Amino acid sequence: MANATNPENKKLTKAHIFLLVGVLAAFIIYGLYEVVWKTKLNGTTLIDNPTGKPLPVTIDGTDYEIPANSFEKIDLEIGHHKISCKAYQIADQDLHLDPTEYGVINPTKSKYVIYNIIYTKKDLSSKFKAYQVEGKEIYSLLGEPEVTTALFIPDRTLGKGNIDDKEPAFENYNRVNQDYAFLTKIFRLNDFFEFYDKNNK
After folding, report:
1. pTM of the predicted model as reported, rounded to 2 decimal places
2. What is the mean pLDDT of each run of 10 residues along the chain (201 residues)?
3. Which parts of the chain fold into alpha helices (H)?
4. Alpha carbons 152 and 146: distance in angstroms, whole number
5. Distances (CA, A) of 55 to 88, 110, 134, 191, 194
6. How buried is residue 57: exposed, middle or buried, by Cβ count under 10 Å (0-12/13-18/19+)?
């Protein structure tokens, strides 16, 4: 006598196959995220050295030497750390990475500018206001440019506006309405003036 196939077993087998495919797909997507997308979606933590000499820095017991006029990407978790930099009298000082771990670590206490870049095809010049940045007149649509010498300067865009991207792509801008899109970007002070002059001729 032939054995009848139980329909419930077929359903169970199909369910198992779908579950297995789903798990495999999840692993593949996670792998792609870690290898490819994560670096694009997330930002970087940079120790910056805008000076003309190499800069030895120690963070959480790990030593770094940042070449002159350069920066180094490092991996740090959000939260509390310790930093030392003998050249700038920093000895086991608290370093707080907050509200994000992405941004600029500034052991030289140099000046940086946080500025809202505007992209528009309309004439919005009447809506811009004049501000003073280190004695220079700068026009801004979205508030006063911020000059800071903070030990840590967070990248508020989570990777789209750090100093390692001097010419951010338009797709990284935030579109809030039909008139314009904007991007909040960190600049070294001199790089900011160069960028501003180049784009406001």
Report:
1. 0.77
2. 50 66 62 44 86 97 97 95 97 95 96 94 92 96 96 88 82 82 94 92 73
3. 7-32, 38-41, 189-199
4. 14
5. 10, 13, 25, 20, 24
6. buried
